[in-house]
Amino acid sequence: MRTTFRNRSVPAGLIAVLLGVLSGCGDPESIPDPDIDLSAMILPTAGLTDGECGGSYVDVKDGAGSGGDARLYHATRWWRTELGSTSEGCTLGQYVGFYGDTGRAKEVFGQQSPDKYYAKTWPWKPKFVDAPEGLNADRTQVICLDGAPATGCTEWYYWAQYGKALFKMSMSHLAGDLPKISEGDFLRNVRSADARVDGVLGSL
User: Which of 32, 119, 148, 158 is most buried by a 10 A CB count?
Assistant: First the structure.
């Protein structure tokens, strides 16, 4: 598994504090109200174009973030999701969740990574790809399924930690025999999402 980290040094004392925090923050109900606008961190799906998947995405679902069962996956009671699709059957999903502190977000980043959560249902072995240089995330994973970056993949995932928040973008084309999604198309949307998330966090 390939995970990219920002080049940061963390004092030993701070690590001890974080470990102490993690031991008592397993309950999503204990996470305080977000101090960031989660909705603003979601990249508007309508109008995003994908040349290989039929043009523009159209919003088909917007989840406000509620419900007990979903918290088992999200590990928080604060999240937003959005799913868009094109006329040719491509889908673009986004998720942002708030975890109250960076220590808990780091913990959930490892525990709920797409390859761990979906591993039993994926029919393909994931291929881990280097994240683009210059992203603002603290930790990232980029995953290709059913294909290779050089020739395109049927499904892509971007999983990232931004301080107290986690962000996931998925892009898939599971219908028909049209071309697979190119690495360039996916990473273009990743860069746009990264800039938006960083812009929201930078405005605090």
Answer: 158
Element (H, E) at 111: helix 102-111
Tracing tokens 């999604």 back to the chain, one arrives at 181
Longest dimension (CA), the chain: 54
Closest to 82 in 3D by CA, of 66, 98, 99, 59:
59
Closest among 22, 4, 32 to 130, alpha carbons compared: 4
CA distance 22 to 169: 26
Euclidean distance between CA atoms 83 and 90, whole angstroms: 11
The two three-digit tokens of residue 169, written as one number: 């973008």
List, for the chain, all residue ranges whose pLDDT scores fall below the cut of 70. Answer: 1-26, 47, 51-52, 54, 61-73, 176-178, 204
d(CA 128, CA 158): 10
pLDDT tens string 120-163: 888 888 999 999 999 999 999 999 999 888 889 999 999 999 99
